Amino acid sequence: MLEIRDLTTSYGPVKALDGVTFTAARGKITAVLGANGAGKTTLLRTVSGLIRADRGNTYLDGLDLARMPAEKMPGLGLAHVPEGRGVITELTVEENLRLGALGRADRSRPADIDRVYSLFPVLESRRSAVAHILSGGEQQMLVIARALMAEPKVLLLDEPSLGLAPRIVVQIFELIRGLVESEGLTVLLVEQNARSALSIADIGVVLDLGRLVAHDEAAALAADEKLRHAYLGF
Amino acid sequence: MQQLLTTSLAGLTLGMVYAAFALALVLIWRSTRIVNFAQAPMAMITTYIALLIVDAGIPYWIGFVAALLSGLVLGAIIERVFIRPVEGKPEMNAIILTLGLFVVINAVAAIVFGSHYRSFPVPFGLRGFEVGDVTVALTGFDVFSICSVVVVMMLLLALFRYTDVGLKMRASAFNQEVSRMLGVKVTGMLTLGWALAAVVGSLSGLLIAGGDLVYPSYMDSVVVYGFVAAVLGGLDSPVGAVIGGLLLGLGLSVVSGYVGSELVPLAALSILIVVLLVRPSGLFSHATARRV
């Protein structure tokens, strides 16, 4: 369970997040929606320690993550899949995956790379390829697979659908849904594409200029025509 | 024929030493985007440490190992104390800083060790091998130079390719933020990178000094040749640095053997200009692939 309380972050004089409070329940997908500049990416970057919050806390199963350095997060069970892929393109597919496993909390047993290959068979067939030759969809799969190598409890996903063909987006969303159901993973999903995000999410929160303006069941948000027109663009 | 052989062997040995120095520059450039001009005086300091040990009557090899270890420590200290504050700042700051360190370390060395010439010992003979009645221009120390550089390169290759630490160092060099997200302590990896680079730089300092004279600025020309070699290979590529070093060593040896040794610095400069004009990214750079 990821509890976000009164989180406030600024870039200079501009408040990018302003007192955001909500909880991402265990074993659920919580979609974070809103227009460009609403603060979605800033929210994830603050939670994962890449940006220092001015105020507020984040609790992962009761443990306060605020002011924890980013490099400690994987060991605490929090994995962040950044926007724009974040594959290390100079490394091979397998090296990216090995790197993902190095930060995991329990290093007493060897990393289970085969489990990840069984989830993403396309990666296994390209295991020794340098990552920059992968297609956009394959790179997205690689970053998700790499995050899973750390065996996280909470997965932060930033715009996994960005720039991908609809068919690939469906495939990736189904895979995430499957992981949530089979392993009780908690997912915080940031999406520009509100319609498809709400189709796989359990809960949705809507940000507008850094403030939380709605927090409800995904189905209820999708049914709220006024909210959809005002903030979600569909 | 004999002239050609002599020239090539001299070029090979010299090229290996330049390759080591270029590799030290490339290791630092790759991880921190800084050209470390202070690499030369750092190697000079560690060579003096070896010299002090050997002059005290302690065996050469202990001095040799001590120099490499002090390189490791010196590299880490320089990164922590001087480079850390300018990381992430405009690149010019770091360049001015390493140039400043170059001047300061040279000056301090002159105060501490004196600026007079001192001869540096060799562990092997300086006579060429004799094949039949011909003396080949390859001494025992030359063979040692080539082998030690090859061994160091193999060790680095194994470190980067097969170990977790090597993987973390490469990841940190390519993408600091993503590496942090994956739990890599990037600052530690940068320090380690500087430390290892300083070891490789120290090795080249010891090899240049062997059988020759040591004084506070004896490495100054090597930083120029090492830099040309690194640019030739494309600052980004360790393999390129090695090949660049070898090409430069052979090229300069040909110039010195056939044209005149006084033209060597000019030849190095000409090579640098030609490379920058024809292929500014160097022969082996991945720079274009990285912007994808």
Automatic annotation (TrEMBL), chain A:
Keyword Nucleotide-binding: yes
UniProt KW Transport keyword: yes
Lineage: Bacteria, Bacillati, Actinomycetota, Actinomycetes, Micrococcales
CDD domains from the UniProt entry: ABC_TM1139_LivF_branched (cd03224)
SMART domains: AAA (SM00382)
A molecular-function term among this protein's GO annotations: ATP binding
Family recorded in the similarity comment: Belongs to the ABC transporter superfamily.
Domain of life of the native organism: Bacteria
Name this protein carries in UniProt: ABC transporter ATP-binding protein
A Pfam match: ABC_tran
Domain ABC transporter residue range list: 2-234
Gene3D superfamilies linked: P-loop containing nucleotide triphosphate hydrolases
Keywords: Amino-acid transport, ATP-binding, Nucleotide-binding, Transport
GO terms for biological process, alphabetical: L-amino acid transport
InterPro entries: AAA+_ATPase, ABC_transporter-like_ATP-bd, ABC_transporter-like_CS, BCAA_Transport_ATP-bd_LivF, P-loop_NTPase
Native source organism of the sequence: Cryobacterium suzukii
TrEMBL record, chain B:
GO biological process: amino acid transport
Pfam families tied to this protein: BPD_transp_2 (PF02653)
Entry GO terms, CC: plasma membrane
Gene Ontology molecular function, alphabetical: transmembrane transporter activity
Species annotation: Cryobacterium suzukii
Entry similarity comment: Belongs to the binding-protein-dependent transport system permease family. LivHM subfamily.
InterPro entries listed in its UniProt record: ABC_transp_permease (IPR001851), BCAA_transport_permease (IPR052157)
Taxon lineage: Bacteria, Bacillati, Actinomycetota, Actinomycetes, Micrococcales
Stretches that traverse the bilayer: 6-27, 34-54, 60-82, 94-114, 134-160, 189-209, 215-232, 239-260, 266-284
Name of the protein: Branched-chain amino acid ABC transporter permease
Membrane-topology descriptor: Multi-pass membrane protein
Keyword Cell membrane assigned: yes
